[in-house]
## 1
Amino acid sequence: MPVVQVLPLSRELGNKEKITINVYGQYEEVRYTLDGSEPTRSSTLYTGPFYLDKAATVKAAAFYGPRSSRNPMITMRRSRIRASKYKVSLTKASLPAVKVNRAKLKAGLSYLYYGGQAATTGGALSAMPQFDPDQAHKQGFVKEITLAPKAHDNNFAFKYDGYIKIGGAGVYSFTLASDDGSQLFINDKLVVDNNGRHGMIAKTGQVNLAAGFHKITVTYFDAGGNAKLELKYKGPGVSEQQVPANVLYYEE
Ligand SMILES: [Ca+2]
């Protein structure tokens, strides 16, 4: 009986993955499915490596002899089925860049700050607030993500807004570490959700970005104890680092 192998073995796909089916032994043909069903003689015929760009379960089987049979369609046997499961965490399409008025761009991010009684209707702030601009304790600009402008040691929140300049198109990983909760939005899409009351935790999210400017929003709150916030990223031509000041802008 021929032995079938589907390569690569189960894994997370990038944007596109080449799938190869190898067969060891004598066989007539190889057929496969992508929906998890068992391959039959009417399934897709394998003629060579093919590309997958979405989640799928590849199930393949070789069909074999006996060659001398008068009716090989009926008597042909099926090898053991081999399956390989592929998943994707990314949508294939990239987030398009947004239009900005370059003449009005300034380095840094704008922020809204909430602390003390001003941020809540009752008692100290202990969860991500609504970030109503009218309720902000103060606002201003920072060169990069930092808690430096805080006016309280505990129970405060920030919302940073601006643009991030992406040089090379492709998949970027953002890692948001915070004590307590934080969230990262790119073009209003939640990319990292690290919300909740907790000590220092890092969470990572990936997003496929076109080159150009993208809206970036980071929200953060501290519910007491230690307070920390860090945003790192890596992507095409960018080794993992704190998101640097020279890619952050706000519109005046
Ligand atoms: Ca804390």
## 2
Amino acid sequence: MPRKIGVGIVGTGNIALLHTLGYKDCPEARIVALCDLNRGRAESFRAEAGLPASVEVYDSINKLYSNDKVDLVEILTPHASHAPLAVAAAEAGKHVSVQKPPAMTLSSYDHMVNAAHKAGVRFRVYENFRYHPPYARAFQLVRDGVIGRVEVVNVRMFGSVNCVGEYRGSKLRFPLHTLLWKIKESQNYKAPTLFDDGYHKHSIVQGFLGDVPGNEARVTAVRAWCRWQRLYKLVQLDSPSVIIYETAKANLYGTWNANVVKNLPMHSNYFGCDETLEITGSDGIIYAPGCTGNLFVGCECGGPGKPGVYWFSKEAGGHAPPFPAAGTWKSDTSMPTDWSQSFIDCTRHLASVLARDEWFDDRDPRPIHAEQGRQILKINIAIIRSLRNDGAKATLASIIDGPGVDDNEGVNVQDEAKDDSNVQDAIVQDDKNAG
Ligand SMILES: NC(=O)c1ccc[n+]([C@@H]2O[C@H](COP(=O)([O-])OP(=O)(O)OC[C@H]3O[C@@H](n4cnc5c(N)ncnc54)[C@H](O)[C@@H]3O)[C@@H](O)[C@H]2O)c1
């Protein structure tokens, strides 16, 4: 029996637990080493993730990269560090999987792809939303032509800080060390919604418009309308915001509408948000509620829809009076709909193709191929440019490397926010003030 693929995890912070779920009992791969600049964090992660003591823990990347048992490196560090870590991994002969957004600039993205190509190793961007089972099912419906050609993709995101459920014991959903880099210019363009989380949404919009066989529209320009919101006095949040994604054809486009309602009770074990996806095709509609969270769980009337996929199509063959020839709604809510499944499937898909010494099928819209990863990053960067020009149109053709605008607006964190407990106190205080 061939040896399992050995996986080295670089960065054992907030997302590491979800990211590594797929390696539990995985037939093709196993985690053999962890590395974090903060060694204590890696050690406690090993225990929390239930990994055996034989899993090596390092605080130096060189030690992990010189470990012969490591075949694949999963990079789960802040985006600005992805490129140097990925290039060094490729040069050490390791396959590379890098969390989204893969890089801050196109040149650093290209550097990673070229290094992997030169070293003859595999490179992929880890974007789990495309693996969310209802979205994977929606991809299949589009591929089967059930709604005709995709014309409009709308993502609706509701945010809240009033979550029911906990992620790793934190009400905040991230520890302060995570929050701090997410609101920095050099690490995230001060755009936790539009740049960091945005990569997922741009990937979904671009994915349905253009990455399913028969649908080849490319996003060519974006407009980012945003009204900054101060959250809990600490964070200047890039929301509410509405993004318009244009293609070369006027009737093919996407939107993403995100806002935070501070006290909206949100059923989510992960981050304080939930998404609904709507896809309009030339012959029908797909509607998929429930993603990161699950807004409708616990709703007495069942809410507008159990998580899953609903579609209306002329192919649906319904005869519902008074519109006998107009088709009917159908649904599939049988798949797992907890967001964690998207991570498990995304992790395992890579392990299974590597174990067979194969690569992803070009026609499969779920994995992000190198060219697609670059296109989504271009959208990401163009949105930052538009954001800084008060929503003006930013074409993807004009993006050469980064957003190209030096922005010094907004101080995101108050000086007193020195540790998690201060942030928690501030939240409690803010809640009291809000009555
Ligand atoms: N797929 C998703 O839904 C999702 C969700 C959250 C975060 N992410 C992505 O995962 C990445 C990490 O995010 P996070 O929230 O876990 O951040 P985090 O700050 O909680 O964790 C990052 C960890 O990396 C370590 N680190 C930083 N530089 C390092 C280096 N050079 N070598 C070794 N370790 C290093 C830090 O000490 C920290 O423990 C980001 O790119 C983020 O966008 C993805």
